[in-house]
Amino acid sequence: MTRLLKRYRPSGKESGLLAAVCIVLAHFFIALGKDSSLLALWSDRLYWQDLPGVWFMATSCFLLVRTGILVSLGNQRQLSFLSFRFLVRLLPLGIILPAIFVLAAQYLYARFIWQQDIRIGSFFQYEYPMAVLVIVFINLIYLLWFYRKPFEEAVSNLTQAGTVITLLAKQGKEQIPVTINQISHIQLISDQLVLHCLDGRQLRIDGTLEQLALKLPLAMFFRANRQVLLGKTACGSFTTERSGRLLLQLKDGSMTIPISQKKARDFRQWLKST
């Protein structure tokens, strides 16, 4: 549970920005449908009474959407938001669940704080449809937030094609520079990236496979599957199964890497490229 919370916990910078945005959002929903001026609204005791509760609901909704997107992505960050599988997972986790949360939270708030029935009033006419639209908008904001760095790295990778890249790996407390021509493959093992060198060393490395795939030259490294980023110099022989899937044996014989039928053609083209 601790690892799960740490994985999905926003950074300090993101938390501060989130708190500020949710205050503005809370004010928007409280003022929605009212003709009062800003000063008149701020002078109303009920405004300040509602602000903490609405802010809490807005913040919780943001965090639900954020977690829904991360769970939907899993370990696949590289352009996964374009896939049908990701969208199918995101719909219930990033949109439907937060929408249900808003409905339930508003019902409880109205029932126990206002002592009113939410069916009487403008909630379903104004506030709730607007809340669902805001949830969709939050999804778009977070998708852009999560993919900002990968897109920047992709552009940087294109402009620096052919340059020698050195990765900084770890062995215990030591930090070890590793040039790309020393890398056999990079493997995801129990949420930890392990860099396998051609000389047999196994080092830890920070980041994700998706980020590394964007940093490293495409001509030298291939994303074989969800767990392995493969270096061309480590490739040995491979066989083709009836299903079209490939089984690649590394040169040192340490590992057999499966490559799906969908990626088989790209893999063969990658091997032929220079």
Average of the residue pLDDT scores = 83
Percent of residues in helices: 40-55%
Helical element count?
Answer: 8
- How large a portion of the residues is in β-strands, by DSSP E? 15-25%
* Shape by Cα distribution: elongated
Low-confidence stretches: 1-5, 75-80, 153-162
Spell the H/E element sequence: HHHHHHEEEEEHEEEEEH
First and last CA, distance: 46 Å
Structural class category: alpha+beta
How many structural units, i.e. domains? 2
Instruction: Count all strands and give the number.
Output: 10
Question: Strand order of the main beta sheet, please?
Answer: 5-4-3-7-6
Radius of gyration: 25 Å
Major sheet summary line: 5 strands, antiparallel
Could you provide a short overview of the structure?
By secondary structure, this protein is an alpha+beta fold. The chain has 8 helices and 10 strands.
Structure description:
The chain is an alpha+beta fold and 274 residues long. The chain has 2 domains: 2-159, no CATH class; 166-272, Beta Barrel (OB fold (Dihydrolipoamide Acetyltransferase, E2P)), CATH 2.40.50.1020. The chain is 54% helix and 19% strand. The strands form 3 sheets. A 5-stranded antiparallel beta sheet has the order 5-4-3-7-6, covered by helices on one side. Helix 2 crosses helix 4 (45-73), helix 5 runs antiparallel to helix 6 (123-159) and helix 6 (123-159) packs across helix 7 (209-215). The chain is elongated and about 75 Å long.
